[in-house]
Amino acid sequence: MNGFTLGTQGDAEAGGILIGSYRGNHVQVRQCTVPLRRDLRERYLFDRKDRGHQLAATLAWTKSFGTETFVGEWHTHPEDFPTPSMIDRATWGKIVRRRASPIVFLIMGRKGLWAGCGHRGDVKNMSLVSADSP
Ligand SMILES: [Zn+2]
Fold first, then answer.
1. Residues 28-42: what's their mean pLDDT?
2. What is the 129 CA–ligand 1 centroid distance (Å)?
3. How far is the CA of 73 from the centre of ligand 1 (A)?
4. Which of 11, 30, 94, 117 is the most buried (most CB within 10 A)?
5. What is the distance in A from the centroid of ligand 1 to the CA of 85?
6. Where are the beta strands (DSSP E) in 24-102?
């Protein structure tokens, strides 16, 4: 990690991909990439332009003999409790229509997290279990 800061601390959004595996009904996230040099980082936009994200997924796939793969994406929003933007919805729609397996989408805000799961062309909110819940 060189010069990595979360968008919640600076002016630009941050993001990356989630890498993991599918086990029965579960998605196990094991690694994530962080913003890379060629990514497009703006105040309200993060675009994974750097090839390093795809390379990390390919490397994980090879090293795990085909069990670890791209399972989702994360990025930050400069708002306390984030909600997906129209661009987020459009981008995710393209991803989930291309894939048969569920995909995890995370948005980190300043105080909260938005989590969703995309499957069969549709992205649904995941309910968040608070740390305070019994
Ligand atoms: Zn977004």
1. 94
2. 22
3. 11
4. 117
5. 5
6. 26-32, 40-42, 45-47, 69-76
